[in-house]
């Protein structure tokens, strides 16, 4: 098993004055979550699949048919995704993914010897897939269809009807459908995105608390049929064994309905306000930049009209302006850039000013 470098995650470690490359909102502080932690709490593992209370809280965020036995708590959505792929994929299986996407699962699938097959998200469709293209790509050897909804990096959203169509296509070849929903709940208009668990017996959903500003507690989960949950739980004994105990304690507080509503409202307020700033900037740089306004999440995926590849462009921008953006090549889409707009307002405005000046300088007279 040989795994390729995760180029995006290493790139995001570069220091900068204006970080517009990451995927999350400005972080919450511990005091935003709780002012009271029991100093006598034991620093123990706890139950390695997650306590009943936290699994129940996660289950309540999904379809009424989801129960705690359908939930496995993990170290972020990243571990949940890894466990699912490791359990389901074998050499020569087909793994179908939409691009652009967060490339974690693509790298894992390749390392396991799976054949990665790609369905593009069409910019002319506001980064939605052409369902007929998916039908042509899926075959009897397809083991897993992977998607991110809402999408990272584009911020597009699959409708319930589109999700159902994807599940129907999967059912015809008895494939699984895995949906990374780390951005679920951050829709601009507030309508929570669909997952395959609502439509399909072989639907899987993963998620986490990271994108509401709680990355540091590293609490995520998977929702799936009990048999698969149990298989992934046994595999977890070989990865982290247990997620963070203090993370679960804080995660259980965060998952209380009142707190989740408060954190989502905070995020949506920032998203709406900062999208206005970004929209004005895009208009000012028309001709150099094109976009499809995001419908959810903290990032947008910009297309630029310069004869330079995205990695080189981002390296020059960082060196000359100390502005960090995410190269589109790291999402499987050349000549694009992921830009985070849910950062501090002043960072966004100054970062965009510098980025605009850089684009005009590079484009020439």
What is the structure about, briefly put?
The chain has 365 residues and is of the alpha/beta class. It is built from 12 helices and 14 strands.
The order of strands across the largest sheet is 2-9-8-7-6-3-4-5
CATH class of the largest domain, named Alpha Beta
> What do we call the CATH topology of the largest domain?
Aspartate Aminotransferase, domain 2
Average pLDDT across residues?
Answer: 96
What is the total tally of β strands? 14
Q: Return residue spans where pLDDT drops below 50 for at least 5 consecutive residues.
A: none
Offer a few descriptive terms.
2 domains; four-stranded antiparallel β-sheet; globular; single chain; eight-stranded mixed β-sheet; Aspartate Aminotransferase, domain 2; 365 residues; alpha/beta; Aspartate Aminotransferase, domain 1
